[in-house]
């Protein structure tokens, strides 16, 4: 607290936190400012929320049989009412009914599938491992094209090496992240962030 020509310490300005383990440190101005008040900044550690999942709907049209599609269209449109009579907006409502009939036909031969795009970045995959994965993919293409025993063996060797390197790098990354957590609560935060523990389960501490 700032008084004229002198300083006095008070407990007027307080920070209240519900978890002292998440508190890191604070800074304070050397001299009072802002109408005689100190500027105090508190650093608080918060876990990073997981990336939201993106979902999209698609149809696999490449495997659709044309004859089956024709039959589905005929059956669907035969039962679709596109009669412009007795409609207040015959063009718009008729077009909507026709569109619904076409969609029903495609639903019959190529139903929609919901896919999830996972954008979770895997930070333990280094540049060297990515280069090795590309080499493995090239070896796979070469073995698939030639069918030669030596090419197949080369691909299997690279596949096993990539798997071993990935598992080792992931274990080291998880171990480092968990060990760097300062208390058991933050360790469980890391477990959930890494997908090792369910986010619905509470910390046992």
UniProtKB/TrEMBL annotation:
This is Endonuclease/exonuclease/phosphatase domain-containing protein. It comes from Trichogramma kaykai. It comes from the Eukaryota.
């Amino acid at each position: 607290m700032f008084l004229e020509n002198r300083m006095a310490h008070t407990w007027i300005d307080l920070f209240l936190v519900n978890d002292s383990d998440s508190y890191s440190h604070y800074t304070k101005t050397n001299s009072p400012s802002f109408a005689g008040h100190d500027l105090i900044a508190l650093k608080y550690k918060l876990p990073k929320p997981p990336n939201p999942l993106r979902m999209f709907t698609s149809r696999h049209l490449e495997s659709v049989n044309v004859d089956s599609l024709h039959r589905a269209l005929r059956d669907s449109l035969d039962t679709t009412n596109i009669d412009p009579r007795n409609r207040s907006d015959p063009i718009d409502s008729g077009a909507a009914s026709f569109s619904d009939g076409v969609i029903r036909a495609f639903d019959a031969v190529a139903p929609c599938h919901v896919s999830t795009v996972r954008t979770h970045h895997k930070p333990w995959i280094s540049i060297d491992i990515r280069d090795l994965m590309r080499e493995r993919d090239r070896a796979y293409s070469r073995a698939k094209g030639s069918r030669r025993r030596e090419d197949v063996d080369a691909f299997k060797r690279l596949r096993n090496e990539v798997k071993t390197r990935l598992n080792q790098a992931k274990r080291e990354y998880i171990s480092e992240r968990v060990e760097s957590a300062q208390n058991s609560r933050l360790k469980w935060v890391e477990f959930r962030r890494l997908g090792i523990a369910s986010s619905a389960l509470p910390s046992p501490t």
